[in-house]
Amino acid sequence: MSADENRNEKVDEELKAEERAGEPIAENQEGETSAAEEDADSMEARVQELQEQVLRSQAEMQNVRRRAEIDVEKARKFALERFVKELLPVADSLEKAVESTENQQSSDEVVTSIREGVEMTLDLFMKSLAKFNVQPLNPVGEPFDPQMHEAMSMVSAPDAEPNSVVAVMQKGYTLNERLVRPAMVMVAKAEDAPKIDEQA
Fold this sequence. Notes:
It contains three helices and six strands, in the order αααββββββ. By secondary structure, the protein is an alpha+beta fold. Helix 2 packs antiparallel against helix 3. The longest helix is centred in the N-terminal third of the chain and has 76 residues. Belongs to the GrpE family.
């Protein structure tokens, strides 16, 4: 064999060896590629799952924050409710004092000055309550509302609409439009209404 043929054989052998060596490498690369693709897919799925968890957590935190803000607002608005309930008998007493002296003509200057003082005190007291959104309910002539009024009795009142408030025995009050105390009222009954057996 000549040197050229020898060289050609060596080159052929080297090429064949490279091909043989390259085949398993290619198969190995394909296996590694498919494993890498599976890892990438599972990682993407995990990332997406974690993103969804983060979004859910953020939404939950916003809901908690909103609820807390609403609770704080309610606490701020209605913190005075018990205090107001304790003050309402004072307003009732002052109103009764003014009403008791209203129709009486007195020549006594002391009684007149006391009445004026009580009226001024009542007016100042009601203005102070109004500053904190405490409003009186005096529903004379309005339709009876069981959510705001407490019916003490039903009376015949030909001049009034049936189921309307004829008289207020005790004013009701609201705090920020929430009922603190219902108004105690007398309600007009319809003249042709059937009689109810109250003894039953």
